[in-house]
């Protein structure tokens, strides 16, 4: 089918939960994708920080194919060999002692919320159940994670929302300290806010959050769904701060496009999840675990993190050059290959203009261009992307 035919059928059969751009992508390789009419695009969105190793990565594809021919799915009633291996790698390379596997970031955050409340019920008394998250945050689309998301625009029309959540401004330790009252059991936090505009907190913020949690006896949950798995140049973004959470959530790049999520925790907290406390039919199935193992191999042993740091710094420098040339660019921020460009104008026309010229990116919060490309991009890819972006800005 042509792009026009595919879009027509999409509008006919698929619910309108996305304001989709007029592109129908049918093939991908590395950092490039092609639409149904054969047009090539440089993909600096990567499925929204998902395809960290690029499209159709041969390591991941081979692992999935081999596993599909061996064992695709069994129940978690049984022990699953690749699940055990991936859990071991995540534990050995993080703060955590135990892992729960699921299928998405929202599910991982749901699991974290449940674990925090279960632990609080058993160890903090029955009156501590509230979870404080940050204004401008994003944690998922289920009712609980939607409520934890500190943006009213996502919550509109879904009242009544679940109780037991509160909010504090991001990057404001004094406000957080006041918000953590005697009925709070946990603080839920993105290390860098993604959907909220690629907002990086000031130095010492995460350390301060950890200190507040320790002083008040509450758990720290880090949502690393977008920042985890190498996106910021470290395997996990919390590593740069030198502090560790009690619970952490992952998804997106963990499967490089294959749906997989994970909730990690220390033994102290994980012990509250006992048989029957939580479950997932598809979570941790062999096919997803094979994808995750291939991703971990690439991140740990194939220079992907080094490339992310090096090319990420180069990309930031090139964008700073655009900032000097174009007054509509207010600020460049981010870490590694998670970069936001804040504009003085709405960004939709720039996204559209770049797409027409063969560069995919997106805009969040109305005026912040978000770049989360594959971690395997080269400086040549960056040069091409910056040239396209600069050309569109010049026309505007």
What does this structure look like?
The structure is a single chain. By secondary structure, this protein is an alpha/beta fold. The chain folds into 2 domains: 3-57 and 303-395, Aspartate Aminotransferase, domain 1 (Alpha-Beta Complex), CATH 3.90.1150.10; 60-301, Aspartate Aminotransferase, domain 2, CATH 3.40.640. The chain has helices spanning 3-13, 46-49, 58-68, 81-92, 105-123, 143-148, 152-155, 173-179, 205-216, 267-270, 286-301, 304-325, 348-356, 379-395; strands at residues 25-29, 32-35, 40-43, 98-102, 130-134, 165-168, 184-190, 219-223, 247-250, 261-265, 329-335, 338-343, 359-360, 362-364, 368-371. The strands form 3 sheets. A 7-stranded mixed beta sheet has the order 4-10-9-8-7-5-6, sandwiched between helices. It has a 4-stranded mixed beta sheet with strand order 1-2-3-13. Strand 11 (329-335) and strand 12 (338-343) form a beta hairpin. The protein is globular, with a radius of gyration of 21 Å. The two termini are 34 Å apart.
List the helices and strands and how they pair.
Elements: H1 3-13, E1 25-29, E2 32-35, E3 40-43, H2 46-49, H3 58-68, H4 81-92, E4 98-102, H5 105-123, E5 130-134, H6 143-148, H7 152-155, E6 165-168, H8 173-179, E7 184-190, H9 205-216, E8 219-223, E9 247-250, E10 261-265, H10 267-270, H11 286-301, H12 304-325, E11 329-335, E12 338-343, H13 348-356, E13 359-360, E14 362-364, E15 368-371, H14 379-395
Parallel strand pairs: 3-13, 5-6, 5-7, 7-8, 8-9
Antiparallel strand pairs: 1-2, 2-3, 4-10, 9-10, 11-12, 12-15, 14-15
Helix pairs in contact: 3-11, 4-11, 12-14
């Amino acid at each position: 089918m042509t792009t026009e035919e595919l879009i027509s059928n999409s509008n006919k059969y698929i619910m309108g939960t996305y304001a989709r751009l007029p592109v129908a992508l049918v093939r991908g390789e590395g950092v490039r994708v092609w639409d149904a009419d054969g047009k090539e695009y440089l993909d600096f969105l990567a499925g929204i920080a998902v395809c960290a190793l690029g499209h159709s990565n041969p390591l991941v594809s081979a692992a999935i194919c081999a596993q599909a021919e061996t064992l695709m799915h069994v129940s978690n009633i049984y022990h699953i060999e690749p699940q055990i291996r991936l859990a071991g790698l995540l534990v050995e390379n993080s703060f955590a002692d135990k892992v729960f596997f699921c299928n998405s970031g929202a599910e991982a955050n749901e699991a974290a919320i449940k674990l925090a409340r279960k632990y609080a019920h058993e160890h903090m008394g029955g009156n501590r159940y509230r979870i404080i998250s940050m204004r401008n945050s994003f944690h998922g689309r289920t009712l609980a994670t939607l409520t934890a998301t500190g943006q009213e625009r996502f919550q509109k029309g879904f009242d009544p929302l679940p109780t037991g959540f509160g909010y504090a401004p991001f990057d404001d330790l004094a406000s957080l300290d006041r918000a953590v009252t005697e009925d709070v059991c946990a603080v839920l936090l993105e290390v860098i806010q993604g959907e909220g505009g690629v907002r990086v907190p000031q130095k010492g913020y995460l350390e301060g959050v950890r200190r507040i949690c320790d002083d008040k006896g509450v758990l720290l949950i880090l949502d690393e769904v977008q920042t985890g798995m190498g996106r910021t140049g470290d395997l996990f973004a919390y590593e740069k701060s030198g502090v560790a959470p009690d619970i952490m959530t992952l998804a997106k790049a963990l499967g490089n496009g294959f749906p997989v999520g994970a909730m990690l925790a220390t033994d102290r907290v994980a012990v509250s999840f006992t048989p029957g406390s939580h479950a997932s039919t598809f979570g941790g199935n062999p096919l997803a675990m094979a994808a995750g193992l291939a991703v971990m191999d690439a991140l740990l042993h194939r220079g992907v993190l080094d490339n992310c740091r090096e090319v990420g710094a180069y990309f930031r420098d090139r964008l700073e050059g655009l900032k000097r040339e174009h007054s509509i660019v207010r600020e460049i921020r981010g870490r590694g290959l998670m970069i936001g460009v804040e504009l003085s104008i709405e960004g939709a026309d720039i996204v559209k203009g770049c797409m027409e010229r063969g560069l995919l990116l997106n805009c969040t919060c109305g005026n912040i261009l978000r770049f989360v490309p594959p971690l395997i991009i080269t400086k040549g890819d960056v040069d091409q992307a910056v040239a396209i972006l600069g050309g569109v800005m010049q026309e505007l």
